[in-house]
Specification:
This protein has about 230 residues and is of the alpha/beta class. Helix content is about 50%, strand content about 15%.
Length: about 230
């Protein structure tokens, strides 16, 4: 890599559905060395379009957004535009947010209380091939992987709460971050069939949203954190 390439600012797109937050992040990044904001998106679909149009080095991605959330947008960007890295910048540091984002291909994960120097380090890290994780996220991963604490035994002999084997399989795929369309392709069924399974398992477990389903799957020992 030439010296000019090394010194070139990292071209960044910001994705966040809250206008005030998005504009604040853009303003902050404009003050940071080595970063050039080239676009801002209000949801995941727009983020994917901007990546296709602008080919940025990094997307700073919020997770909770309408229409297309950050996990799905990350998966699409990494599949369609592998030259663009994704750093999650979110309010949420819970396992239900963290692990699906990392599985989707995010190389960095920061919470929105991160300082400017922390954001710069994360961007530089992912562009050099390393992980850009905040110290608190690193500790969370290490604690979860080294000492998961009391948990139900893995792979219960019987699916919980009266779920069928297929409903359990769909639940595990949701916890792994797959969309309804991806689950349908993987199981060789229609999207309508997947939606029926999801409605049934939600009714049996009392779940209402996918984030609850992720926590439920971890709590029941149906899935485990990634090993690396």
């Amino acid at each position: 890599m030439t010296e000019e390439a090394v010194k070139r600012p990292a071209r960044v797109v910001v994705a966040d559905d809250q206008t005030v937050v998005r504009e604040g992040i853009v303003m902050l990044l404009g003050l940071l060395p080595g970063i050039e904001v080239v676009g801002a998106a209000g949801d995941g679909d727009e983020a994917v379009r901007l990546v296709a149009e602008l080919a940025p080095d990094v997307v700073l991605m919020d997770l909770r957004m309408p229409r297309c959330d950050g996990v799905e947008a990350t998966r699409r960007i990494r599949a369609e535009h592998p030259g663009t890295q994704v750093v999650v910048l979110t309010t949420f540091a819970d396992d239900a947010s963290l692990f699906p984002a990392l599985r989707a291909g995010a190389r960095g994960y920061l919470t929105k209380d991160a300082g400017g120097d922390e954001i710069v380090r994360a961007v530089e890290s992912v562009l050099s091939g390393d992980a850009g994780l905040s110290p608190s996220i690193q500790r969370r991963l290490l604690e979860r992987l080294s000492d998961p604490g009391p948990q139900p035994p893995p792979g219960p002999a019987e699916p919980p709460d009266g779920l069928t084997a297929r409903e359990t399989e769909v639940l595990v795929l949701i916890a792994e971050g797959l969309t309804n369309q991806e689950i349908a392709r993987k199981l060789h069924v229609s999207t309508a069939t997947v939606k029926t399974h999801i409605n049934n398992l939600f009714a049996k477990t009392g779940l209402k949203v996918r984030a609850q389903a992720v926590r439920y799957a971890y709590g029941k020992g149906l899935v485990r954190p990634p090993a690396g």
